[in-house]
C-alpha cells in the first residue's frame, strides 16, 4: 500500500481482517481436501484479554489440519461441541487419539453412546506428538502480535491463521498444481 502512496493504519488492517477472514475461511472450507480417518486431538492455551482460553485442534495421521475451535472453557461441553462440528464438516473418524484429558474422553464417550458404530478412542501421550508440534506454527504467529483483546476478534483472527496454515500445508484443492500459497489465498478472494 505504501508503494502506491496509500497510508494505512494498523487498525484499518485489523478491521479489514475482521471483516474478510470469515469470508475467506468459508471459501476455503468449500475447497478443502479430505482428511484421514485417524485423528489426533489436543487443545492448547491462548491468552485473550489476559485470560487463558482453549484452542481445540485436530490433525490426521499425515499432519493435515482437520478442524479448530476456540472455546472459553475446557470441559466436556466444549470438547463435545468441537467433536460434533469436526465430524459434521469432515466425516466420521475411525480412531481418535487424545492425551489424558478427562474432558475429551467424556465427550467422546457421550458421542459414542449415541452411535451405532463407536469411534475407537486411544489415550496415548506419545502418539499425539504430531498435534503438539503442529501447535508450534500457530503459537509462532500469535506470539509477536500485541495480544488478543476480544474473544470474538480472537476467534476470527485464529481462524485466518489456521486457514493460511492449512494452505501452506497444501490442503486446498486447486486447479493448477503449481500455485504458491500466496496465489492459492488470492484465488480464495477472487
Primary descriptors:
190 residues, alpha/beta, Nucleotidyltransferase, domain 5, five-stranded mixed sheet, 5 strands, 47% helix, globular
Gross CATH architecture: 2-Layer Sandwich
Q: Widest sheet: strand order?
A: 3-2-1-4-5
What integer is the average pLDDT?
A: 90
Tell me the count of domains. Answer: 1
For the biggest sheet, the summary is:
5 strands, mixed
Whole-Å distance between the termini? Answer: 19 Å
The gross shape turns out to be: globular
Summarize the entry for a quick read.
The chain is α/β, with parallel strands linked by helices and 190 residues long.
Please provide a written account of the structure.
With 190 residues, the protein is an alpha/beta fold. It has one domain (2-189): Nucleotidyltransferase, domain 5. It has helices at 10-30, 76-90, 102-113, 129-142, 151-168, 181-189, and strands at 38-48, 51-60, 65-71, 95-98, 120-123. A five-stranded mixed beta sheet has the order 3-2-1-4-5, sandwiched between helices. α3 (102-113) links the parallel β4 (95-98) and β5 (120-123). α2 (76-90) crosses α3 (102-113). The model has no long low-confidence stretch (mean pLDDT 90).
